[in-house]
Amino acid sequence: MSILTAARTARAAPSPTFLEFVGIIAFMMALGSMSIDNLLPAFGPIAVDYALPSVNEAQLILTVYMIGFATMQLFYGPISDVIGRRPTLMIGLVVFAVGTVVAIFAPSFTILLIARAVQGMGAAATRILSVAIVRDRFHGREMARVMSITMMIFIVVPVIAPSVGGFFLLFGTWHLIFVSMLVLVAMLAIWFWRRMPETLHPEYRKPFSFARVGAGMKRCVSERVTLGYATGMALMYGSLMGYLGSAPQIFETEVYGLGSLFPLVFGVIAALMGVASFVNSKLVRRLGMRRLSHVGVCGFIVFAAAMVVVALVFHGKPPLLLFALTLAGCQFLFSLTMPNFNTMAMEPLGDIAGTASSVIGAYTTLVGALIGMLISQSFNGTVLPMAIGYLAIGIGGVAVTLWTEKGRLFRPHNPDPLPGR
Q1: Per-residue pLDDT of the chain (421 residues; tens, 9 = 90+)
Q2: Are 121 and 65 in contact (CB under 8 A)?
Q3: How far apart are CA 19 and CA 146, in angstroms?
Q4: CA 160/CA 316 separation, integer angstroms
Q5: Cα-to-chain-centroid distance, residue 267
Q6: What is the 3-state secondary structure (H, E, C) of 123-147?
Q7: What is the DSSP letter of 174?
Q8: φ/ψ (deg, to 5) at 39
Q9: Which fold has domain 210-411?
Q10: DSSP code string of 141-195
Q11: What DSSP character marks residue 249?
């Protein structure tokens, strides 16, 4: 039986329950996001093992992973629109597993970097296919509800990933972290293949052609709602990347010197982000995606402005509690905004969900990573660069939202009547 025949047969299989469906999608999100930061505690040991001149060179482990992760997002979506979601995800998981095995036995740091790039290329499938599969099954406020739960995983897991990596280092070398990734990818592959039917609607399956893929990508950037809310997502994602890049220097070392208490503060803020995503999943069906996300992005400006004020008043080093409150407010509102922006960006493109997910994912990842790098590289021993960056992101987010909605905020729209829903 061919892969395509197996995929079509799987579509007729009983669908998982709602909770199991969310669990599978969350697992997909978790694998990709966990692999980003779980090696952070291993930078020192890796630098020693490969005799690197500086621990800073170990940061390339993240850089090459993100390059592979961002670029391959453009490919998995169009492929999945042709052959289906199931075989496409399996291809990505095999690529990830190959990169992981190579990393475990890497004889040199160069080979390790190549392995990490391959890992990122494989993990991109989990990011793209999770969004496409959710769009296949849901739309409108129900999709926003599911995306709130899964986006919570995508946001929170990178924050706790360093602690997970540190846990494995207690029992062995950094190679054990890669072994844990191999176990996770095997578990996901088995669970997904046994329980998730093919979700690509038969009427949306089309033969491959560069012209069709190009037309789909053009449609993504020419659709006002998609382009606007994807840009809003990219800006907000930039705030998360800036936070992840700046937090160790702000909390752990240079500004507040929390040392071993750093993971506690990090974890509390991550928990608030998770709470916000949970709140969004409960309220979105009643209040709508636009009301919640517009409140979120407008409120983000208020808290970011407060962060700038307290930073200026205290010469860049405000009391920890005061700074943490303004930052936590921003992160809470971030989590009210992101999943709804993602849903609304995907909403008009259900018939090309794979391609749309690829374009949106690559765009938001690349732009967000660039913005995050600008924020973190601007660190000057105070919290002021991050505060100013947050305020600029909030203002840009509101401006883009106004453009997208033609000057109208907080007005709910009727869900789109796409066929097959």
Answers
A1: 444 444 444 444 567 888 899 899 989 988 988 887 788 778 788 988 999 887 667 778 877 888 898 889 889 988 998 899 999 999 999 999 999 999 999 999 999 999 999 999 999 999 889 988 988 888 777 887 887 777 777 667 766 777 788 889 889 899 999 999 999 999 999 999 999 999 888 877 777 777 777 888 888 888 999 999 999 999 999 998 888 778 778 887 788 988 777 767 777 887 787 788 778 878 887 888 899 999 999 999 999 999 999 999 999 999 999 999 999 999 889 988 988 898 899 888 877 877 888 888 889 988 988 898 888 888 888 999 999 999 999 999 999 999 999 988 887 765 444 433 3
A2: no
A3: 10
A4: 27
A5: 18
A6: HHHHHHHHHHHHHHHCCHHHHHHHH
A7: T
A8: -90, -5
A9: Growth Hormone; Chain: A; (1.20.1250)
A10: HHHHHHHHHHHHHHHHHHHHHHHHHHHHHTTS-THHHHHHHHHHHHHHHHHHHHH
A11: I
Measured CA to CA, the distance from residue 126 to residue 92 in angstroms comes to 7
Closest CA to 285 of 152, 138, 420: 138
Are 1-208 and 210-411 in the same CATH fold?
yes
pTM of the model: 0.77
- Which residue is listed with tokens 């208020």? 302
What values do phi and psi take at 237, rounded to 5? -65, -35
- What type of residue is 33? S
Structural contact between residues 286 and 412, judged by C-beta atoms closer than 8 angstroms: no
CA neighbours closer than 13 Å in the CB half-sphere of residue 106: 24
DSSP per position, 60-124: HHHHHHHHHHHHHHHHHHHHHHHH-HHHHHHHHHHHHHHHHHHHHT-SSHHHHHHHHHHHHHHHH
Dihedral in degrees, nearest 10, Cα atoms 421, 293, 230, 265: -120
Q: Which amino acid is at 162?
A: P
Angle at 123 between CA 121 and CA 128, to 5 degrees: 100
Tokens matching residue 167: 């846990």
Structure tokens at 157: 């897991």
CATH architecture of 1-208: Up-down Bundle (1.20)
